[in-house]
Amino acid sequence: MNNKSTICFLFAKAILSVMSIAPGIKASNLANPAVLTPEARISVGASYHLGGYTLTNLELPALFNRVHARCDYTPFSFLSFGLDAGATMIDVERYVQNGDTFPVFHGKFGFSGGGHLKLSTPAFLKDYLRITAIGQGSYFSSKNNNGAVYKGFDAAGVIGIQFHIPKFGFITAGPLVYIIDGTNRNYTGEEHFYSNLNNIRGWLAIDFFPHLRELHTTKPYVSLEISVSPLAKFTKRIPVQEFSVSLSIGSITKRLYGEENDVEWEP
C-alpha cells in the first residue's frame, strides 16, 4: 500500500469514527478556514457567527451571535485540530407554555469555547479536488438581566468536496449536521430542555488567500461560511431563521519544523 492509499484508508476510518460519535460532538461555525493547511503549520484567527435556529417543539425562533478566536495546528498532511474560545449572545422569541407567557429573551454575551477537528484526503484530479470532513464542539451560555439563562452545547459536522482555485483559495460545499443540546432556566429558577428542530443544512465555505508582498512568512486568509436549512426564511422580528453566516480572518504560519519544500506552499 503506497502513501496515498494509506492516507485515504486512515481518512475513511477516521470519518467512520467521527460519524459513530457524532451525537456527542458539540459545535458551531466550522471554517476558519475550511482548507486543511500543509503539515507543521499553525493558523490563528477570529470569527463572527450569526445563526438563526428554531428551538424545541414550540418552534421558537432564536438568534445566536458568536465571537470566537481560534488556534489550529496541523501535525500531519491529512489532519489538523485546535481550540476555540470566545463569547455567545442568544435572543429567543417569547412563548406561552401551560398558560404562562414568557417574554422575549435578550441574553448578554457569555463564555463559549470548545475544539475542532479537520480531516482531508490528498488532492486529486490534478490537485483541484479533495474530500474534507470537519467537526467542531463548543459549550455556550447567555444570561439576561433577570437571571434567566440559555446554555448548553451544540454540535456540527460536515463532509464535503473542496475545490482549489489557484491564486484565489478554496471553495468547500456539502451537507451539514447541526445539533443543539441545551437547558434554559427562567427567572423563577425552573429549567427546561431545548434543542433545534432542523438538523440538516446545506453548507458552503469560501477561503480567500490574498497575496500581500509585505508578508513573506505568513499566509493571511479571509473565510466566509454559509449554512442554509430547507426551512430558511426572513421575518421582521427575527430577521434570520434557519440560516447562518460566519466571517473569519486570520493568518497561517510558514512551516515550523522539518524539511522545507523547494517551493513554499501557495493556495
Topology:
Elements: H1 3-20, E1 41-55, E2 60-76, E3 79-92, E4 95-97, E5 100-102, E6 105-106, E7 110-120, E8 129-143, E9 149-165, E10 169-185, E11 191-195, E12 200-208, E13 218-233, E14 241-253
Antiparallel strand pairs: 1-2, 1-14, 2-3, 3-6, 3-7, 4-5, 7-8, 8-9, 9-10, 10-11, 10-12, 12-13, 13-14
Explain this structure:
The structure is a single chain. With 267 residues, the protein is mostly beta strands. It has a single domain, classed as Lipocalin. It contains one helix and 14 strands. It has a ten-stranded antiparallel β-barrel with strand order 1-2-3-7-8-9-10-12-13-14. The radius of gyration is 20 Å and the shape is elongated. The two termini are 29 Å apart.
Q: Identify the CATH class.
A: Mainly Beta
**Helical fraction:** under 10%
Q: How does the overall form come out from the CA principal axes? A: elongated
- Give the DSSP E fraction (strand runs of 2 or more residues): over 45%
Annotation field: number of helices = 1
Point out poorly predicted stretches: 7-28
* Average of the residue pLDDT scores: 84
Which structural category fits the helices and strands? Answer: mainly beta
CATH architectural label: Beta Barrel
Question: What's the β-strand tally?
Answer: 14
Q: Please state how the strands of the largest beta sheet are arranged side by side.
A: 1-2-3-7-8-9-10-12-13-14
Largest sheet: 10 strands, antiparallel, barrel
Oligomer: single chain
Structurally, the number of domains stands at 1
Q: What would the CATH topology be?
A: Lipocalin
Order of helices and strands: HEEEEEEEEEEEEEE
- The Cα radius of gyration reads 20 Å
How far apart the termini lie comes to: 29 Å
